[in-house]
Amino acid sequence: MSNKNKLSPEQQESLLSVLEARFENNKNRHNNIEWEKVQSKLKANPEKLWSLDEMERTEGEPDVVGYDDKTNEYIFYDCAPESPKGRRSICYDHEALEKRKENKPKDSAVNMASAIGIQILNEEEYRELQKLGKFDTKTSSWILTPASIRKLGGAIFSDFRYDTVFVYHNGADSYYAARGFRGSLRV
C-alpha cells in the first residue's frame, strides 16, 4: 500500500470515531452486529480504512449494512440521505467521458469508484439500501449497468420517489448536478 493511500494514526482514530458514532446512531441498519468486531477488522485492514475515509470525504456517510458469513466480511454502503455531494455531476464510465467532446464532466462514476477502492451498488444492493431508510428522494444515483445495456450506449440509475424505487436509463455520457453514485466496501 502506498503512503498516498494510507491514513496517519490520528486520521484513523478520527475516522473510527465518526464511523462508531454513525454505527451507534443507526442500529436499524445492522442488527446483531457488534462495533468492536467491525473495528477490529478495520484496524487490521488500513487500506479499507483509507477507502472508507474517501467515502466520508466525498460525503457518502458510509455505514455497516450487513455481514457476509461466507466471506467473513462486513459490508459498508454509502448511507448519505442524498447521492454523495462529492461524487455528483459525473457520467457513467471512462468510455462515456471520452465520448463527450464538449462540456465534459470532471470524471465518471466507474473511474471514481475505482480510485476510491469501492464498488458501485448494483440494482439489488440499491433496493436493499432502500429497505433501511429513504435515500435519493431529491437526487439519483448511477448503479452498476449490465454489459448488454452499456454495449448499446446506455447506463442505468435509480432514485426513490412516491414510496417506490425507480430504475431508469440514460446515455452513459449524460451527467446531472443531482446525480452521483453510491458505493459498497467489504472489510
Overview of the structural elements:
- With 187 residues, the chain is α+β, with helices and mostly antiparallel strands.
- Helices cover 35% and strands 22% of the residues.
- The strands form 2 sheets. A 4-stranded antiparallel beta sheet has the order 1-2-8-3.
- Strand 5 and strand 6 (164-171) form a beta hairpin.
- Helix 1 packs antiparallel against helix 2.
- The longest helix has 17 residues, at 9-25.
Placed side by side, the strands forming the largest sheet appear as 1-2-8-3
Question: What structural class results from the helix and strand content?
Answer: alpha+beta
Poorly predicted regions = none
β-sheet strand percentage:
15-25%
What are its keywords?
187 residues, alpha+beta, four-stranded antiparallel beta sheet, four-stranded mixed beta sheet, 7 helices, 8 strands, globular
Topology:
Layout: H1 9-25, H2 35-43, H3 46-57, E1 62-68, E2 73-78, H4 94-99, H5 109-116, E3 119-120, H6 123-130, E4 140-143, H7 147-151, E5 154-161, E6 164-171, E7 179-181, E8 183-186
Parallel strand pairs: 4-7
Antiparallel strand pairs: 1-2, 2-8, 3-8, 4-5, 5-6
Helix pairs in contact: 1-2
Quick synopsis:
With 187 residues, the protein is an alpha+beta fold.
